């Protein structure tokens, strides 16, 4: 039923941590992927740093009164069991069908995830007990807060399956990068290509920003025409 | 990955075919289930008769340009493969995330389902090539029609899994009844209880309707007070 | 708690039955009222004739599981009691908060309304048991059909109060006109002014339509410039 | 037209002020009530403390240009008159149909409510003049801010009636608890039962959180199996 | 302000009239265009035949009470003037921001369009006076019907500009094909490529449908594997 | 294609900077304009001061994959060219169709606008690279943040045209006032009338607020009856 989770190299984490989600979406769009930004995944607290990790997915369907009960929390297929299956350093990505009136997790579940070394939680739903969740120190990206428990609106059905999170198809072990602008998905198969292009794109935009700060107009600069491209290439050679 | 499909007894089909989805939702509500009607499942053609069958589920997530391609239609996990796994007399229930701008199936897939003896198609999405679909004779309940193919908006990920269809949690082999008012789910575990209560509820409402047609006022009649309940019980004894 | 219902003169009914809801909304807009068309109030069956009547209002709030139960149907404040308070020839206007997944009324309640001489039912919600409702012969304008009973999503709280129906404020005894384009409200205080202007507007548009059928271009004709206004006035004098 | 407002005992306020809205929604769900959290009721300012009080309800319908005017603010049925009817310590709960482009109240009305000793304002709509409202010191839970006055989108129709606030049915004198997660309704008739269960639930969750902090896994702990339940009961006996 | 309208060759019209919008969207998706189907453009009457034509665009912005008045209908920038600028055989494509509570055109404007030889009207909004509009014989694709005039919700601002219609970018003179599944856009620059691929796709799908009717399973057939592709190619050679 | 931009007198800016958007919407409503507040235009950073300026408009339509590409950023009709056409002290008002999953501008474009002396940016869409945008110091009012570039969801089509921004019709050179409550439009033709009424309204509300702070009840005060109006007029005479 569920896909085995994979590690992500420290080097990949290091390199991608230096690339904004804005740059990644530009790079992915150039490769034909327009739909990689998970709608609704906003930082729960100000100042949360950029994170990079493999997606560990959880899936909900709508609540059914015979299934979505507090008793279900003790069943073998429960959010509790899913959390115990999460590897350290993963990013838990929870498909909650954009439901904003039932919180998927509260302080207790977030505390346990933190204990297990989970890097962060990303969902198109909401969390509950916001002060408790913030107290656990687990970084969360979500649509906000609601008091009711998950079973008021959702039935949990499994983990490490393909899911919809914020209108994006997320498969287990896809790479997720999340910062102040929200969460972006990099398909696992495209990782190497994306890294290469992203580092270059980030460097180019830094150089363009410098020109703008010096008063240069945008046409011909962003994107660069031949003349500006040449200037940029020359500048690049001066880098250490 | 997928649950084995089960048959449904001819007797169950016969009895439930005489019960309206309205009556079933009333009975299910009395058992505490308020969320069993799949939003958006409206008859594609006028006059489609009531159907009863086990749910054979299909699941979509949002389109991702590297996965949702015409080429994917030939992969082992495709809507084509799912259709070949459908047993006769099942009702295909397709979770399409309420997407109305990409048609899950067109004439070719519906024709194949009809050939395989599938009883009907229920979805919270839409179909494409409406005149072709109507031509196949497969009864369809859906949100309407759109020209684009499924891959314009959806990625197919599997069959006989728990799904969301129109805001209702549907598990493989749950029972589906569908008529002019749309599709209602009966959880497999509650089937016997529901049948018993539904037949009685249908009979009572028929009797009440007769009283209304004879000019009786509603208070005390619907629901019946002790006096009217007694009259009803007496009438019931006169039935063959 | 509830306002007494008033009759509407046969003469008013006769005159307004000859005026389209399109013309009425134009006339009301010229008097500064832009928000008088109840969104979602579409004919349930093709060919329903235009109706005119005083609004008899019903009000729902969201379902609360301790209140919205089948048992509540027997309480003194119930849809059943409301129906028994409806005068002949009124138009029942039901504020259902645009809820489309719980039917406010089914065949039994509609049959009773028909028996009481209610002219028609207008709601921003839906009805249930569509074939049964059509069978009663009561003309209905609504958002469509759903199987579940009202208590699956709504709690009934009273009648002849100010309500929201389809985004329009409806007060008891306001006048409602409903045809193929849906339901329009005429505030009771504006009735006489509206009738006068509407009859004239209808006549002018008939004349304009004739000119268009004869090939005249629109600029200067609709709205008419001085020359065309004069032609119209001349034509009007030839009317019986 | 309007229900008389009732006081709430200081003891009830004290006890419920120690219970989170998260715990209350869990307790209410166990009693079968899933729909008690008012969508959109978020704190206007950070750090607003938890409040408990009886609901004093206000009701709006959509704007009608002949009724929703600045002049209407002087009529006997106006938000001004409603405010003068509010008892000290109540929580004003305003049903604004989730309208987010017209502010129900600005600085002047909030200042007057503060003067009258109203505990707080809860609405599914928005306020206007946010800096002015914050200046009054009245705690507000709402969907945010908009510049236009209420009459740009809403017509006020009465107070102390049953209302819809954020998709929840609120009756006058129901109990409202509001904190960082938003506003939760406790039906007046269920108050005693809820208090008893809530205090116990809060204590249990505190104990579970402690176990998680000490590294215990979730399965068997939350909800507790027999062994953990016994440990909890033993611990509970050690409490003062 | 507005782009000159262009004719479309009779040959193009003839060829595309034999291709379904379903096939066109498949072909366009293979060229990387997923967003070409105008949401909400459904046939107003049953049985409307497929139409092909150049887009003649009209643009609305929201209503502003100082501009959106009946008097504005006589101004030089009005829907009336736009209609007089429409060439015969064009398809009028009206961007109405998906507004469903104000009808863009009624019987008089549609009658004039019909007189001018306009092929059809496509909009993401609605029309008013449905019986009148149907009476003119102008084929219309839209979201339905509303009684209020355009100025109740919309301000007209120009024609033959780039517009949004149903979430699709439409430029003047793009090609529009519309049938029972709604309206599809072919960018003018891609027309020749699309025609070629569409005719071939239509033929292939016809052949596949025949195989399905003869009982062949879908895997390997749709899309065809090498063996079936060869069979298809052989069959194609037998065509006249 | 685009209207020439006009300056705004320093005096007008000075006077309107002292008037809240709340007061302006009240004044405009009294003149019959209810729809002047641009939905979704919220301050990106806390504490942004009130701004006043002429609108310089930009217009987007939905993304089309053949047009909305990174290459398009270098075309003559591009957001880059539009920015170079902006005069100092204008307020850029961008109609982005309420799209929240593609950022219209990031740090580079905002930096250039700041360099050109643009007063602020108002949009019904979102920006990208929020930390970069905040770093430029350009005040922004918008719906929030998204990582993807504009071309992921939008095609830019022109500037200084009539647009829809947040459901409001904005014409080039209309006056925009924006503060903590969002952005309000003053039609250019109504500017003088609005200024006069707004200053008086602001003064009256200040006086009313003082009375409330001294404990006066609302009825008869807000709006003032004859007695309170006289008191206010007397007080006004004491002003310097």
Descriptors:
homohexamer, 240 residues, 9-stranded mixed sheet, 11 strands, 21% strand
Can you walk me through this structure?
Six copies of one chain form a homohexamer. The first copy, chain A, has 240 residues and is of the alpha/beta class. Chain A is built from seven helices and eleven strands. Chain A has helices at residues 10-16, 21-30, 79-84, 107-115, 130-136, 191-213, 226-237; strands at residues 37-38, 42-43, 51-62, 91-95, 120-123, 140-142, 154-159, 163-165, 168-170, 175-179, 182-186. In chain A, strands 1, 2, 3, 4, 5, 6, 7, 10 and 11 form a nine-stranded mixed β-sheet that branches. A two-stranded antiparallel sheet of chain A has the order 8-9. In chain A, helix 2 crosses helix 6 (191-213) and helix 4 runs parallel beside helix 5. The longest helix of chain A has 23 residues, at 191-213. Chain A starts with 9 loop residues before the first helix and ends with a helix. The mean pLDDT of chain A is 96. Chains in contact: A-B, A-D, A-F, B-C, B-E, C-D, C-E, D-F, E-F. Chain D binds chain F through residues 63, 65, 70-71, 73-74, 78, 80-81, 83-84, 100-101, 103, 106-109, 111-112, 115, 128-132, 144-149, 151-153, and chain F through 20-22, 24-26, 29-30, 34-37, 39, 42, 167, 180-182, 184, 205, 208-209, 212-213, 215, 217-220, 222-223, 225.
């Amino acid at each position: 039923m569920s896909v085995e989770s994979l590690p992500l190299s420290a080097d990949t984490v290091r390199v991608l941590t230096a690339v904004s989600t804005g740059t990644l979406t530009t790079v992915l769009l150039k490769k034909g992927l327009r739909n990689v930004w998970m709608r609704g995944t906003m930082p729960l607290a100000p100042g949360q740093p950029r994170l990079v990790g493999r997606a560990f997915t959880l899936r909900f369907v709508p609540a059914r009164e015979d299934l979505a009960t507090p008793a279900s929390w003790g069943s073998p297929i429960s959010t509790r069991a899913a959390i115990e299956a999460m590897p350290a350093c993963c990013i838990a990505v929870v498909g909650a069908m954009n439901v904003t009136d039932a919180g998927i997790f509260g302080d207790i579940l977030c505390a346990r995830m933190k204990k297990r070394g989970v890097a962060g939680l990303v969902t198109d739903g909401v969390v509950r007990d916001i002060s408790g969740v913030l107290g656990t120190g687990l970084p969360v990206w979500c649509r906000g807060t609601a008091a009711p428990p998950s079973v008021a609106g959702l039935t949990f059905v499994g983990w490490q399956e393909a899911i919809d999170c914020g209108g994006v198809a997320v498969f287990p072990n896809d790479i997720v990068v999340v910062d102040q602008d929200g969460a972006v998905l990099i398909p696992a198969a495209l990782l190497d290509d994306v890294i290469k292009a992203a580092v270059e794109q980030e460097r180019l935009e830094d150089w363009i920003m410098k020109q703008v700060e010096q008063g240069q107009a945008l046409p011909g600069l962003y994107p660069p025409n031949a003349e500006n491209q040449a200037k940029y290439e020359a500048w690049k050679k001066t880098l250490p």
